[in-house]
Amino acid sequence: MAEGWDAYLQPGERILWEGAPQPGIRNRERLAFISLFGVPFFFFGLAGTGVGLQHIFWRGDVGIGLVTLALGLIFIVVGYTFAFGEWVEAAKAHRTTRYALSTRAAYVARQSRKRSLKVYPILPKTALEIDHCDGYDNVWFHARSEDGSEGGITTTRIGFEGIKDGTEVYRLMRSIQTGPT
Asked: pLDDT digits over 103-139, tens only?
């Protein structure tokens, strides 16, 4: 796989480590919280779709039936995305996400709905964190803050999530910060 990263490396830069999330679903509490919002949307969409079909086929009111059916389908899609879609994405992350650490930066490549590659330079001032969880590690190296919906600030941590050899990756990142690797 190292050959796949070569197109994105700077001259003199080389890959020190590469990996992927381990199979399994992590962050179950967050996913369950998101699902709580999706389930009512999903069932409301099912009900709306049923009412729309009833208007079209049994009452003969095609106009109202099509509008109700369309709105019901929108609610089904939104509800499914929140209630189940996040679980599906989390379950297949080990197949759609690849990580690499070079002598200069951390690379996160994803291929799900669309392909993306994000590069995070590892600088002496980069704040590094490691979380040891049950059977996997998270190595955090970037945080993005955004204005939240209620005026507060939401911080999203970015890193190599769900990896097996987090201690080694963390050690490599620290060595990048302190001098030549």
From this structure: 999 999 988 778 889 999 999 998 899 999 878 899 9
Q: How many domains does the chain have?
A: 2
The residue count for the chain: 181
Same domain, 14 and 37: no
Q: Encode 15-31 in three state secondary structure.
A: EEEEECCCCCCCCHHHH
Q: DSSP letter string over 27-89?
A: -HHHHHHHHHHHHHHHHHHHHHHHHHHHHHHTS--HHHHHHHHHHHHHHHHHHHIIIIIHHHH
Residue 25 pLDDT greater than 70, yes or no: no
Residues 108 and 173 in one domain: yes
d(CA 47, CA 8): 49
Q: Are residues 47 and 65 in the same domain?
A: yes
User: What is the pTM assigned to this prediction?
Assistant: 0.66
Q: How many CB atoms lie within 10 A of CB 72?
A: 20
Q: Are residues 53 and 37 both part of a single domain?
A: yes
Q: How far apart are CA 9 and CA 2, in angstroms?
A: 11
Kindly state whether residues 75 and 110 are assigned to the same domain. no
95-104 burial, b if ≥16 CB within 10 A, otherwise e? eebbbbbbbb
Enter the tokens of residue 144: 């993005």
Q: Are residues 127 and 61 in the same domain?
A: no
CA–CA separation, 139 and 156 (whole Å): 14
